[in-house]
């Protein structure tokens, strides 16, 4: 949770080293906002406009002020801030002064449109986020310019020394110490560096040294380790989910006849390998598992409840949905539901797993969009952040549901047509129905029995599915 790291009373110093222009606003709104969402976009705009109003391009405030100006709770600000960091719009530093942390927020300019569309990661994720080739083409067309071919034209541009003359010696004699001091000043000035707009990759996401160890001796290591090529390798490994050994094979193929790394050839090889494994499924941008600050487990799991919580926290929702579907490929519409639960309803991945498990059990193994969003809206209003909170609320909802069923009534989001008079009872997960299971560690015999029951249940579902297909 945010309170472990940041408090409303903590001060922050926001600053930037560039001047805002119209193009920045267009790129942020049209290109960055679909990726980071409206809240992160609003946070960046709030910080940058506050800084821009200051002559020194620097401002000091408390996070309480930021909460007031954005209308957001601090936990929301904290989670949205991380998106700005990840995409390269913000760098965060801190120091401890008199027992409290002071944060430094260095705001970076967005990439220009050319850099964004030429970026291997951002362009692909924008395309998939928009979900339409026409929309993507329309955006790209908006930022495109028509170049004029000057190859056959005569260049009559005047050179600097053709227009200006050098300083006359008499002018040099009028130089004063103040003038020399001003001309030689090294104080920082507003301006942009090419690296200002770059997002970074955490080194623990891809083991670069292990990747290097897989390369054969004929590959020049210096060519691979230069900054530009390293960044490309990190990008492709992230986007196409490549392991160090797989990336080493791609590098070999791309450098088979040359000592220079052909970036375009490496991209082609990476796409080809990805398509062989994933068919036509495009790479997607999204949170994979429960963020560290929202995890409940501090150590190894001791009880069955701990193990279930750990499982929900360390499994991506799409992977969990595959398991619920007996390993079948997840339907595109279901993936869209999961993404909306995470990005629109702001549910953490672990909480989404609990929600999926609950819906599958109460809705005859069907993932209903309306039901998912109805429950998600309720959980969001209840400020459910952790797996433990979600499981606790799901138990209460299930108890209410059973009470409604016994009385012949049901919650509004679970009502069916009047023709469905019979109430169908679905088997529920043990974490929802058994209050004793979390108190002590299960024995080996109990675990073995549970595995057999689970296998038996999966077989029953498989037979039902087969019967439906045959009928």
UniProtKB/TrEMBL annotation:
GO function terms (MF aspect): helicase activity
Compositional bias (Basic residues): 461-471
Pfam families: DnaB_2, WHD_DnaB
Annotated Replicative helicase loading/DNA remodeling protein DnaB N-terminal winged helix domain residues: 9-267
Transmembrane segment boundaries: none
Source taxon at top rank: Bacteria
Composition-biased stretches (Basic and acidic residues): 395-412, 436-460
Keyword terms of this UniProt record: ATP-binding, Helicase, Hydrolase, Nucleotide-binding
Name recorded for this polypeptide: Replicative DNA helicase loader DnaB
């Amino acid at each position: 949770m945010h309170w472990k790291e940041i408090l409303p009373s903590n001060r922050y110093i926001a600053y930037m080293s560039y001047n805002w222009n119209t193009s920045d606003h267009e790129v942020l709104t049209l290109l960055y906002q679909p990726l980071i969402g409206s809240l992160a976009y609003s946070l960046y705009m709030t910080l940058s406009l506050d800084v821009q109003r200051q002559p020194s391009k620097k401002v000091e405030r408390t996070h309480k002020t930021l909460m007031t100006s954005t209308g957001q709770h601090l936990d929301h600000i904290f989670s949205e801030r991380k998106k700005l960091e990840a995409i390269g719009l913000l760098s965060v530093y801190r120091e401890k002064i008199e027992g409290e942390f002071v944060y430094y927020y260095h705001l970076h300019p967005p990439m220009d449109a050319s850099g964004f569309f030429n970026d291997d990661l951002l362009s692909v994720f924008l395309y998939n986020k928009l979900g339409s080739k026409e929309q993507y083409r329309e955006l790209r067309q908006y930022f495109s310019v028509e170049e004029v071919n000057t190859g056959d034209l005569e260049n009559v541009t005047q050179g600097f020394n053709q227009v200006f003359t050098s300083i006359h010696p008499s002018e040099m004699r009028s130089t004063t110490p103040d003038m020399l001091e001003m001309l030689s000043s090294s104080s920082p000035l507003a301006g942009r560096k090419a690296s200002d707009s770059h997002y970074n990759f955490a080194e623990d996401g891809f083991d670069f040294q292990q990747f290097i160890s897989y390369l054969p001796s004929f590959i020049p290591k210096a060519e691979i380790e230069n900054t530009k090529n390293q960044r490309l390798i990190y990008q492709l490994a992230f986007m196409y989910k490549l392991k160090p050994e797989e990336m080493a094979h791609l590098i070999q193929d791309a450098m088979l006849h040359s000592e220079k790394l052909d970036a375009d050839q490496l991209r082609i090889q990476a796409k080809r390998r990805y398509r062989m494994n994933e068919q036509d499924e495009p790479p997607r941008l999204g949170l994979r598992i429960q963020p560290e600050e929202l995890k409940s487990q501090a150590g190894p799991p001791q009880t069955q409840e701990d193990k279930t919580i750990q499982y929900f926290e360390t499994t991506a929702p799409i992977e969990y949905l595959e398991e619920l579907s007996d390993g079948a490929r997840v339907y595109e519409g279901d993936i869209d539901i999961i993404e909306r639960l995470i990005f629109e309803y702001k549910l953490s991945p672990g909480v989404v797993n609990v929600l999926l498990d609950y819906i599958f059990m109460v809705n005859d193994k069907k993932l209903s969009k309306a039901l998912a969003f109805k429950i998600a809206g309720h959980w969001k209003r209840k400020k459910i952040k952790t797996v433990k909170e979600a499981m606790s609320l799901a138990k209460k909802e299930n108890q209410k549901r059973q009470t409604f069923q016994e009385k012949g009534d049901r919650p509004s989001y679970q009502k069916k047509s009047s023709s469905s008079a019979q109430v169908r009872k679905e088997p529920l997960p043990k974490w929802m129905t058994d209050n004793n299971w979390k108190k002590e560690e299960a024995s080996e015999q109990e675990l073995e029995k549970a595995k057999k029951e689970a296998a038996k249940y999966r077989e029953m579902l498989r037979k039902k599915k087969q019967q439906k297909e045959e009928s």
